[in-house]
């Protein structure tokens, strides 16, 4: 089975210019823990998730609590918070290849890219469970 058969779409992502607040809003609204970060051409730049966003806001709170320290606040963006490099899989990759990549990278989801490098979908553990594992189990019953 190929990834394009089970991936979720359309892709919910943020751009490298998104603020931490905008990123937090998308994570919350969509119920995701991790989002792809796209560059201006729609290509994968990295991944940003709850740990990076919460860590950013925790740092902001600590800076606010230390009024005599230097103000090192910068305009943060998803591009500055994201994890790189971000593993991805091609639309024609097998589910087994994607699962291996997710396990090796301890990732909960994996962006799916097309021939042109554009992010066209995302595959998560939930997609694998819902579209591969559960149907296989019901076929055995």
Automatic annotation (TrEMBL):
Recorded hits in Pfam families, A to Z, give: CBS
Q: Where is the CBS domain?
A: 7-65, 82-138
Question: What are the alphabetically sorted keywords of the record?
Answer: CBS domain
Q: Which InterPro entries match?
A: CBS_dom, CBS_dom_sf, Diverse_CBS-Domain
Regions annotated as coiled coil: none
State the PANTHER family in the record. CBS DOMAIN-CONTAINING PROTEIN CBSX3, MITOCHONDRIAL (PTHR43080), OS02G0818000 PROTEIN (PTHR43080:SF29)
Spell out the protein name for this chain.
CBS domain-containing protein
Provide the species name: Prauserella flavalba
